[in-house]
Amino acid sequence: MTAARPLPPQFHGLQSFVAEWALATEADRLAKLTRSSIPELRAFYDAIFARAEEIKSYLNAFKLDAMPEDAATLFDLLLTFVETAHPIELNWTTTDIDDPFALERMTIGHFNVYPPS
Fold it and tell me: Does 5 map to a domain?
């Protein structure tokens, strides 16, 4: 069993969401979105939304490439919130969990907008 990723002390109340929702990659966040029910998304959304401004203010003190481990965990939690909020904000009744189009058929590609010279 691996140790839980830490959160800054003032955000300890969000610790129960870390293992499932503090996801470091875009692919993991998309998979979580498409495999979560609306009630699961709602519980996560409500918890983070209530503290989103406080989280943003806290994270603004750090450079993206020099965050302490606990701030990086909080950052991943906030990224997952941002990338999974639209079903709640757009009043979806379901997520792709019920869609017959398999996520495995999709890939997330990354490209360089500035190709090498």
Answer: no
Burial of residue 58 (CB within 10 Å: 0-12, 13-18, 19+) is middle
Task: Please report whether residue 41 resides in a domain.
Answer: yes
Q: Please report whether residue 39 resides in a domain.
A: yes
Give the global pTM: 0.80
> Do residues 48 and 77 lie in contact, with contact meaning Cβ atoms separated by under 8 Å?
yes
**Within a domain: residue 97?**
no
Judged against a pLDDT cut of 50, whether residue 90 lies above it is answered with yes
Per the structure, the complete domain to which residue 24 belongs is given by 13-90
Residue corresponding to tokens 């990086």: 72
Q: Report how many domains make up the chain.
A: 1
Euclidean distance between CA atoms 89 and 32, whole angstroms: 17
pLDDT tens-digit series, residues 1-58 = 346 899 999 999 999 999 999 999 998 998 898 889 999 999 999 999 999 999 999 9
Rounded to whole angstroms, how far apart are CA atoms 52 and 100?
Answer: 33
